[in-house]
Amino acid sequence: MTTPDNGPFQLPPLPWEQAALEPVISARTIGLHYGKHHRTYVTKLNELVKGTAMADTPLEQVIRETAEKPDQKKIFNNAAQAWNHAFFWNCLRAPARAQPSGTLAQRIDSDLGGLDKFRQQFAQAAIDCFGSGWAWLVDRNGKLELTATSNAMTPIAQGTTPLLTIDVWEHAYYVDYENRRPEFVNAVIERLLNWDFAQQQLDRSSQRKAA
Ligand code: MN3
């Protein structure tokens, strides 16, 4: 763990080497995206919460408490972006397994019409997200859905459980793909999705509902 500016919130280590996702995502993109963008969200969040009760509040709770509050917008944006990026890195893995298994595969079949439709709809949500944002596979009250959020907005502030995400801010792909967002999105969906991580999120979501 590295702690920018010794603040309470930390930049978690990447789950792989920076070149691990090549050629889909270059080491240079990961170096900038993680080392500059993600780090800056954590650093700014630490500056913003310094000396407040938020400094002792878990990150997910900071996000929920500041969502949709205009006077807390800066804290929300940096907290949600810090969380979204840490989640995003875990959604990627190379080499990825070709397809999900277990209950996740069953739910993709029953809720989304199968893996091919999942891929098409996830890509479409990512491509159609206007401007900066995120595409998500979420569990909403026991049903899987594909959706997108704008800017820093995150499912954990909207009462759904995220299973997978793709960052579609331009900084996520411009160095490697210039303006070709669909090419980036389809390459990530076909070659990098971490199905084991998505299954873990689904299991946790099911356990929370059963509790
Ligand atoms: Mn990003």
Describe this structure in words.
The chain is mainly alpha-helical and 211 residues long. It folds into two domains: 27-90, Fe,Mn superoxide dismutase (SOD) domain (Helix Hairpins, Orthogonal Bundle); 102-210, 3-Layer(bab) Sandwich (minor pseudopilin epsh fold). Helix content is 50%, strand content 11%. The protein is built from eight helices and three strands. It has helices spanning 27-49, 59-66, 73-90, 102-112, 115-128, 174-177, 181-191, 195-210, and strands at residues 133-140, 143-150, 161-167. A three-stranded antiparallel beta sheet has the order 2-1-3, sandwiched between helices. Strand 1 (133-140) and strand 2 form a beta hairpin. Helix 5 (115-128) packs antiparallel against helix 7 (181-191). It is globular, with a radius of gyration of 17 Å. Manganese (III) ion (MN3) is lined by residues 33, 37, 85, 167, 169, 171-172.
List keywords for this structure.
single chain, Helix Hairpins, minor pseudopilin epsh fold, 3-stranded antiparallel beta sheet, 50% helix, globular, binds manganese (III) ion
